[in-house]
Amino acid sequence: MGKLVGIQYLRGFAAIAVLLYHVGDQHKIPFEIGAAGVDVFFVISGFIMWSTTAHSDVSMPDYFWKRFARVFPLYWVVLGVTFVSAHARPAFFYNHDASIENFLRSLVLLPRLKDGAFHPTVVQGWTLSYEVFFYCLLGVLMAVGLRLRLIGTCATLLVFVAIGQIVDLGYIGAFAAPIVLEFAAGVLIAYAASRLKFSRSVTVVALSLAMIGFAFETLMVDWPRVLKWGVPAALLVIAAVGLEPWFRKHPVRMLVYFGDASYSIYLWHVWVGIMMTGVLLRLPIPTLLHPPVQAVMMLLASCLLYRVIEKPLLALFRRPPGTVRA
Prior knowledge:
Blueprint: H1 5-26, H2 37-53, H3 60-88, H4 100-107, E1 112-114, E2 117-119, H5 126-140, H6 146-166, H7 181-193, H8 200-215, H9 225-242, H10 244-249, H11 253-260, H12 262-280, H13 290-316
Antiparallel strand pairs: 1-2
C-alpha cells in the first residue's frame, strides 16, 4: 500500500494536538480536546496495520520484526534520555515515575499501574502498551485466513473489553480498556475501504459529524472516551480516506513531513518541553508568550530529532540481524 497523504496529514495533526494539550496543561490553558489525538492515532493504527498486512505475503517473523523496529528503538532512546534527565533534574520531572523498577518495566511496555492506568517513565508512552498489544493480537491471527483474521481481531477486542467491564482481571484488565475498540474501528474502515470507494456524500457526512463531535465534546464530558473521542476519530479517518484523491492532487509537503515525523513528535515533545521551560525562564520573553513559543520550539526540535535520530534508527533496523542485502 502506498503512503496515503490524508492519513499522513492526520498523523501529523494528531501528534501536534497531543503536544498542544500538554502545553495547555502546563500553562493552565484549557485544551482537553488535544488529548483526542491519541484516539485518532489508535484508529489510524488499526487502519494501517490491516491495510498493510491484509493483502501481502509478509511472514509472521517479518511482521513482528517490523513492528519491533518501528516502535522500540526510538522509544528506548527517549526512555533512556528521560530516565537520566529525571535523575539529573528531579524537580523538572516531578510527575515522572523514574524509579529503577518502573524504568525496567517501561522497557517492555508493562509499566506501573495506578488507578487502572499505565504510568511509564515516559509519561505519554502509555499508549504504546496498547499499540503493542494490538500488534501482537493481529500478528498471532496472521496464521489464519483473511476473513477469520478480521472477525478474530474485532471479536477478540470486543469480548475482551466486555469481560474487563464485568470481571476484575488485575493487571491484564488494563488492556481491556474500551479505548482498544478504536483499533477495531480502524480495521473495519480499512476493510471497507478495500472493497468500496467512499462516495463524496459519505465523505462529507463523515467529516461534518467528526467536526461536530469534536466541537461539542464538552457537552459529552461524562461519556466514555471511546464514544466521545473515538467515534469522531473514526469518522475523521473515513473522511481522510474519502478525500485521498484530492489530497494526492494537492499534497502539502510540510503536512506530509509532520506525518512522517509524528512518532518523534509524540515521543520527544514532553522531554523537549521540559527542557524548553528551563530555557524560557532565563530569557527576557513575556510570560504571555511562553506557551506559543514553547509549542513552536517543541515541534521544531522534535522534527529535528526525527531527522537526526529516528530516520537513522529506521534505516539501521530495517532488516533483521543476519539478513543479507540482495
